[in-house]
Design goal:
There is one protein chain. The protein has 17 helices and eleven strands. The chain has 455 residues and is of the alpha+beta class.
């Protein structure tokens, strides 16, 4: 039986070359990643002891810069933006960074903290490293991610190559349809802020023994945080990795893999009960035919051993047949069949998700009061397409009712928008504005739009 190729093997499958120097920087990076991943898969106990010299390879830093430039983002504490770097001598910039890393004189700057409003009125901290630090973190991630990908469980979906939230939703659907309708909907208390550095480094050392790479990661973990000019954290900090840092999602996955393995372990406590874990970063649920309080206590004990804890106010144990639950913006609910043949599983965008896109549409129209119809259509298309691409999972989620509600909302908002826009009446002044924008100016019809084919 032929083993399915993973993302690293797929990237280099069929690659032919006479000299590595003939490959571009992306292909050379993919080849190195495939070799690291293959070694890690073939020898589960192998510890990599020479990795640091690969972090500052010119083609690795070039690839890392491509990723940072593509993602954009705000400036860090030094005020330097991605555009500033792009507008200068990028080669010289990367060469200087490579030399700092080679000589081990590189030191990260403080992480800029910004506060992002949440739907419940609270604020979530987000860390923004400098562009320079983002490039080095991306380079380090390119090297160590293939190694740990060889160890990750299939039940983990967040921030991993060729995996998505949609895959996690499909996995939950499959588990529920298999009869695992008892659900433990878990929420961790400030996961990224509570990862213990000492225990995380112990996990890293199971695969990495290069002290220079471990020192690099420790420097990022200990980097001070600048909050409105006030510095906190630093060397005395023992826990947390700032959300927003390039390396943080990978470190979070590496640490949470301990829980994945404990739940999935053959002949472990959870396996005889058929309990499955589906995880996306720090969001996860357990599904099973019967999840008792003893199972919950066992999970809490495991989390406590790793220095983590459950947020009791947001965590619940339920029967999906009689109570709905939400995960990654989707609502899972069993509804009565219209034909009287029992229940069917209804997966659809949740109320909060619908509320968020309505807020985005309202905000866009409010801030583009003097834009041309083509501009308005293009801006709204970015919002609508991105939202539907996420929530419309063919054969899995049901979005028709939400689309109808969204169509009505957009029609009302555009009617009000053009009513306020000018006292001069035009073809867009009236209830027909939504239809005219669709027919003449390229606005997508939310009832007809279908996401690109998903693989």
């Amino acid at each position: 039986m032929k083993t399915e190729l993973n993302i690293y093997q797929k990237r280099v499958e069929g690659m032919t070359y006479l000299d590595k120097r003939m490959l571009n920087h992306r292909d050379r990076t993919h080849l190195l990643q495939a070799n690291l991943n293959r070694k890690a898969k073939e020898e589960k106990g192998y510890v990599f002891y020479v990795l640091y010299d690969k972090v500052f390879l010119p083609y690795i830093l070039r690839y890392a810069w491509d990723e940072v430039r593509k993602n954009g983002g705000s400036a860090g504490v030094d005020g330097e933006t991605v555009q500033d770097v792009s507008g200068g001598d990028v080669d010289a910039y990367l060469d200087a960074l490579s030399e700092d890393l080679r000589r081990q004189t590189y030191k990260p700057s403080a992480v800029k903290r910004v506060w992002i409003p949440k739907s419940n009125g609270e604020k979530r901290p987000l860390g923004i490293p400098t562009v320079r630090d983002r490039i080095v973190q991306a380079a380090c991630k390119l090297i160590i991610e293939p190694i740990f990908e060889a160890d990750f469980e299939e039940s983990s979906y967040g921030f991993r190559p060729e995996r998505s939230a949609g895959d996690a939703i499909r996995a939950i659907r499959a588990s529920l349809q298999a009869g695992n309708t008892t659900v433990y909907d878990a929420d961790l208390s400030k996961y990224f802020d509570t990862i213990p550095h000492g225990k995380l480094l112990q996990v890293l050392k199971k695969r990495i023994s290069d002290p220079r790479v471990l020192r690099l990661i420790k420097l990022w973990l200990k980097a001070p945080v600048s909050d409105r000019g006030n510095l906190t954290g630093g060397k005395r900090n023992k826990v947390g990795t700032p959300q927003g840092c390039v390396i943080s999602p990978l470190l979070a996955n590496i640490y949470m893999n301990l829980i994945d393995k404990a739940v999935n372990r053959l002949r472990g406590y959870f396996q005889p009960y058929g309990i499955k874990i589906i995880r996306y970063a720090d969001d996860f649920i357990l599904t099973g035919r019967d999840i008792g309080q003893h199972t919950v206590s066992c999970l809490k004990h495991l989390l406590a051993r790793t220095g983590l804890r459950i947020n009791e106010t947001k965590t619940k144990l339920l029967n999906a047949r009689t109570a709905e639950f939400n995960f990654l913006g989707f609502t899972f609910r069993y509804d009565a069949s219209l034909y009287g043949t029992g229940q069917y599983l209804n997966i659809h965008p949740g109320k909060k998700a619908l509320g968020k896109i309505k807020e985005k549409i309202h905000e866009y129209l409010h801030t583009h009061g003097h834009s041309r119809a083509e501009t308005v259509s293009a801006g709204l298309n970015m919002i609508i397409k991105g939202w539907l691409n996420y929530f419309d999972l063919p054969g899995c989620s049901y979005t028709q009712m939400t689309r109808r509600h969204l169509r009505w909302y957009m029609s009302e908002q555009l009617y009000r928008y053009y009513r306020r826009k000018s006292q001069r009446r035009s073809s867009l002044y009236g209830q027909q504005a939504y239809e005219i924008l669709i027919s003449k100016y390229g606005l997508v019809d939310v009832l007809k739009y279908r996401p690109p084919t998903q693989f």
